[in-house]
Amino acid sequence: MANFFISYSRKDAAIADNIRNHIYKLDAGHDVFLDIKSIHVGANWKAELQRKIKACDFFILIHSNNSINSPYVKEELKWISESELKSGMRKLIVYRLNYAEIIPEIASYQILDSTDNFTIDFFRLMQGVLAENSFYNVEYEIMLEDEYWYKGKIWIEAPGQFLEKIQMAEYRFDYGWQPDVSLITVNGTKSNIKKKFAVQFETKYHFTIFVMLYLWNTKELAFIKKIHISH
């Protein structure tokens, strides 16, 4: 189950409602926030929008010539940007209508252009939902030194503003027969985490590395990356 937030201009409400209905058909367990369907009379709508955007797993923007001029959509884009920066997760998915102008706020995101077949568009949209959605990626170089020994390095890749959010990384090796080996902690620095978290190692036999990442000013784990090596 996932939490979705749909951002749109009221002039595109029919398309937004169609996306909402299709998500529920896909899995009725999903929670899909659409303001005209989800905000009760008398509620503090601005606070409710901020709360839902902060809690959402995926933020679907219906980008059109109408939404470009919507002050509400602009404010929602500001809030989702703040949420992404804090969580380290990509949440924004752009569904563009009629080749609307690409604005700076969405220029770095993959954009799905609409066609005349909504069913195809919807399943392409869901492929974006299921894709890897972290701003952080664990890169590694591992070489087999001889029949048993491996030598390698692991490090974090991310845009600069996200690297600065890293407080600490932890990793451990799992050799199958010895799964509870100690965690190795690497403390981050806001200015130089990429160089700081470049761990070199030597180890014997096949193994799995688990890398866990923590961010500043939050108790949340950004992600767990599993790297399995065998021969």
TrEMBL record:
Domain TIR: residue ranges: 1-162
Pfam families: TIR_2
Domain of life from the UniProt record: Bacteria
Protein name per Swiss-Prot or TrEMBL: TIR domain-containing protein
GO-annotated biological processes: signal transduction
SUPFAM superfamilies: Toll/Interleukin receptor TIR domain
Ranges annotated as spanning the membrane: none
InterPro entries for this protein: TIR_dom, Toll_tir_struct_dom_sf
